[in-house]
């Protein structure tokens, strides 16, 4: 099997019924959902889209779905057999980074990760201010538009998703100002699509959430990851991150997590770095195919697969076996 990487879906990928077919067909996925408990199983399998839009509901549900899909993938690849090959790199988009660190052993168990994600979701829900918009167009044009429309408000590029997609976040009035300019003749060829979210994630407006998380993290213990993890803050490897270069595993992980919640996601660079490392196949685990689509736009030479239900799992394993 060629070198492969795994990426974990983030908030926004959720959808009603997610994970139900994996629960019904994969013992490993079923175990993860059962460990998460009945409330999260309800949110994944039965909740409607309105409930799933609530950050405090979304994040624990997506984290659970990510870990269940990853468990199903490892089970299907023959985890525990002599021929089993670990991924050569892993990453997660925003919330998905918590799944990546759990998969790499930096977060000690699924249960610990779930408690931590619940804390994070409540802090982000409480921070609550602001808005976000996905901007389609040339990166330089989008950044120029941000500068033109920021004025005295908070407005920043926060998700560098692909060469043609950059998400911005900040004060609602500033995001609306940018969207209005993008819709006019002076929009510099940029299209702005408002996102249905409860706050300006990964922007300076998340500072209250970061401060709360810094305090909460004192109650958690962490380990050095056992797999190469590419992190959102830089797009590079965890061990390259300057704030995580020294100190204990606890101090390194705490510094990275506090920075992460209020800093941009460099997803394009993440995929480029994974490709440069020799990874040939990227497998998205979790709801939807958003990261699969971004992989194809960022590095079309890579094979992009996903695992979100029994069919996509079977298709992925069939492709891998042929290779």
Describe this structure in words.
- This protein is an alpha/beta fold and 323 residues long.
- It has two domains: 4-127 and 206-322, Malonyl-Coenzyme A Acyl Carrier Protein, domain 2; 131-197, Malonyl-CoA ACP transacylase, ACP-binding (Alpha-Beta Plaits, 2-Layer Sandwich), CATH 3.30.70.250.
- Helix content is 48%, strand content 13%.
- It has helices at 20-25, 27-36, 38-45, 49-52, 55-77, 96-103, 110-127, 139-150, 172-182, 207-216, 249-260, 267-276, 290-298, 310-322, and strands at 4-8, 89-92, 131-136, 155-162, 165-170, 191-194, 281-285, 303-307.
- Strands 2-1-7-8 form a four-stranded parallel β-sheet, with helices on both faces. A four-stranded antiparallel β-sheet has the order 4-5-3-6.
- The longest helix is centred in the first third of the chain and has 23 residues, at 55-77.
- It is globular, with a radius of gyration of 19 Å.
- The model has no long low-confidence stretch (mean pLDDT 93).
């Amino acid at each position: 099997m060629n070198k492969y990487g795994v990426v974990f879906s983030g908030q926004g990928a959720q959808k009603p019924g997610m994970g139900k077919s994996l629960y019904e067909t994969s013992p490993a996925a079923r175990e993860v959902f059962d460990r998460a408990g009945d409330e999260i199983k309800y949110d994944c399998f039965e909740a409607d889209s309105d409930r799933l839009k609530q950050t405090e509901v979304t994040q624990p549900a997506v984290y659970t779905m990510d870990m269940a899909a990853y468990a199903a993938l490892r089970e299907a690849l023959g985890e525990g057999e002599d021929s089993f090959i670990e991924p050569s790199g892993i990453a997660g988009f925003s919330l998905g980074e918590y799944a990546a660190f759990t998969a790499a052993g930096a977060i000690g168990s699924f249960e610990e990760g779930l408690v931590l994600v619940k804390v994070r979701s409540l802090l982000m829900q409480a921070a609550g201010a602001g808005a976000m918009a996905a901007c389609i167009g040339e990166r330089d044009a989008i950044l120029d538009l941000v500068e033109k429309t920021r004025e005295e408000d908070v407005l920043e590029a926060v998700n560098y998703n692909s060469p043609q997609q950059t998400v911005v976040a900040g004060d609602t009035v500033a995001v609306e100002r940018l969207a209005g300019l993008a819709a006019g003749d002076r929009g510099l060829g940029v299209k702005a699509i408002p996102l249905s979210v409860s706050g300006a994630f990964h922007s300076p407006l998340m500072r209250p959430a970061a401060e709360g998380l810094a305090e909460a993290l004192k109650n958690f213990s962490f380990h050095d990851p056992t797999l190469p993890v590419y992190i959102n803050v830089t797009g590079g490897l965890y061990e390259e991150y300057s704030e995580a270069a020294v100190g204990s595993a606890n101090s390194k992980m705490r510094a990275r997590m506090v920075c992460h919640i209020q800093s941009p996601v460099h997803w394009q660079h993440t995929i480029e770095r994974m490709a440069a490392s020799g990874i040939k196949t990227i497998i998205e685990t979790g709801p939807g195919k958003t990261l699969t689509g971004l992989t194809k736009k960022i590095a079309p030479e890579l094979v992009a697969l996903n695992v979100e239900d029994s069919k996509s799992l079977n298709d992925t394993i069939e492709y891998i076996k042929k290779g």
